[in-house]
Amino acid sequence: MSNLERFRSRRNLYNPVHPLSQIHSEINRTFERFFENPIWNESMPKMPAINMKEEGNQYVIEAEMPGLRDEDVEIEVHGGQLTIKGERKQESKKEGEHMYIEERSYGSFYRTVTLPQDANLDHITADYENGLLIITIPKDPEKEPKRIKINRKPSS
Questions:
Q1: What are the SHSP domain coordinates in residue numbering (predicted)?
Q2: pTM attached to this predicted model
Q3: 80 in helix, strand or coil?
């Protein structure tokens, strides 16, 4: 096959009537329609990023919540699960203001964490400072796992 024939056969792939070219165009149109969906144009609320650690006789949960006030956040405990929820409200736009880039997310959010069995749910405290929510959960020594001794029966 000469170079000219190879060129012509490759060129045919980009011919709008060629079947592979039609499939390629349809895939491109599908992706364009997918990203034109209005859901991609709205800011999606994000769950707060958290760290949970054990510090001696307590557990500590740190949740990042920059730009929120403490009255915008609620903490609930139910059935061994701790839920942090709140709402980030969008600031109203000023007349004549034109936004060039808008990446901050707004709306309701929540995050649920399953607490360890020995967490004392009656003495949980929470502090909020500089966009960081710190939840302290003491351990209940009575709920700590107990070892069960295995009795050996004499063999018969």
A1: 41-153
A2: 0.60
A3: coil
Output the six-digit token pair for 127.
């502090």
What residues contact residue 82 under an 8 Å CB cut-off, 6+ apart?
61, 75, 76, 112, 113, 115, 124, 135, 137
Average pLDDT of the chain is: 80
Residue 51's beta-bridge partner residues? 62
Q: What percent of the chain has pLDDT over 70?
A: 78
Cβ-in-10-Å burial (0-12, 13-18, 19+) of 50 comes to: middle
User: Residue 137 forms beta bridges with which residues?
Assistant: 59
Residues 6+ away with beta carbon under 8 Å from 104: 43, 67
Rounded to 5 degrees, φ, ψ at 58 are -155, 165
**What whole-number distance in Å separates Cα of residue 71 and Cα of residue 80?**
24
List residues bridging with 105 in a β-sheet. none
Answer left, alpha or beta for residue 141, where phi above 0 means left and psi between -120 and 50 means alpha. Answer: alpha
Give the tens place of pLDDT for each residue, 72-107.
Answer: 899 999 989 999 998 887 777 777 778 777 777 778
Q: Which two tokens stand for residue 70?
A: 């403490």
